Amino acid sequence: MPWAGCSILVADAGTLHALRAKAAAKDDVLIVGMPEPAQTSRAYDEYLDRPAGTANEDLAYRAISLVGPRNKIDRLVGKLSLLR
Length: 84
Description:
By secondary structure, the protein is α+β, with helices and mostly antiparallel strands. The chain has helices at 13-24, 36-40, 44-49, 70-77, and strands spanning 9-10, 30-35, 61-67, 81-82. The strands form two sheets. A two-stranded antiparallel ribbon has the order 1-4. It has a two-stranded antiparallel sheet with strand order 2-3. The two termini are 21 Å apart.
């Protein structure tokens, strides 16, 4: 989605979980998660097997992308700083 622009913000794992939960409560925000197995698996089948059956709240997220109305996204991420 390079045409939409992309800001990279910094957050620890706990903040990502809380942010994801808040975003999930909004009906017009798309959440794309990058759980830990997505970064450490070498094959797609391995990636699919590792998080299978794991509850969303038990996944360790490395990153999440949020897409939606700017005012809603700004309210969700307003306190996070830019990655430098």
